[in-house]
Amino acid sequence: MALVASGLAEAGDDEALSYIEGLRALQPVEADGILARLFARQGRLEEATRALEEALGRFHQEPWASSVLTLASLRLATELGSQDPALALRLFQTVREPFALHADDDDRLPVMAQLLSRLNLTSSCAEVLRPLEPHVLWNLNWLALRRDCYATTRDPLAHKAAADLAEYLRQEPVRFVIDLERR
Question: Is residue 175 pLDDT above 80, yes or no?
């Protein structure tokens, strides 16, 4: 049932609604996630965000939600947040706190960073990032966001964040590209 509902939702087909409602009795988290995708594909961003907030909110209480659904929901959060800073703020607030049992943190944290990057860097970004210290995600986007946030807010960790990003860039492998057109 979930597979059919997902396929129809991805196509933006209203027929997905009957499958979603049938799924809701058995798996309400999955139903909300699929409903959010249906609304997003139909361009109904406000309704998609509301349904996604509901699904993501349930991940905070229900650790047995499917990791596949969690990842799909987080990707949808990034997609919706990239279209409107107001939606990014709402979705950021939903993914800001860890899910139950810290499930899917490796997927949640980069999405949190992407949503945060859509917002104006204010003093609140340091408040959000500080609890993640000192074991921050070690990827370019996250480290750059962290450096920019702490520099903008004149946080005491600004120097450390800049040094961490510089270290990351120093360790990054050199890209090897062959220019075949010059031959």
Answer: no
Q: Please tell me whether residue 74 adopts helix, strand or coil conformation.
A: helix
Q: Using an 8 Å Cβ cutoff, are 56 and 91 in contact?
A: yes
Q: What torsion, rounded to 10 degrees, do the Cα atoms 143, 125, 132, 51 define?
A: -100
Listed in order, strand segments (DSSP E) in 22-71 are none
User: What ranges do the domains of the chain cover?
Assistant: 1-96, 120-172
Residue 157, helix vs strand vs coil: coil
* Distance between CA atoms of residues 182 and 172, nearest Å: 27
Look up residue 116 and give its two tokens: 């945060």
Long-range contacts, stretch 145-154, CB < 8 angstroms, 24+ apart: 145/113, 145/116, 145/117, 148/121, 149/116, 149/121, 149/125, 150/126, 152/121, 152/122, 152/125, 153/121, 153/122, 153/123, 153/125, 153/126
Task: Kindly report, residue by residue over 10-62, the tens digit of the pLDDT.
Answer: 999 999 999 999 999 998 889 999 999 999 999 999 999 999 999 999 998 88
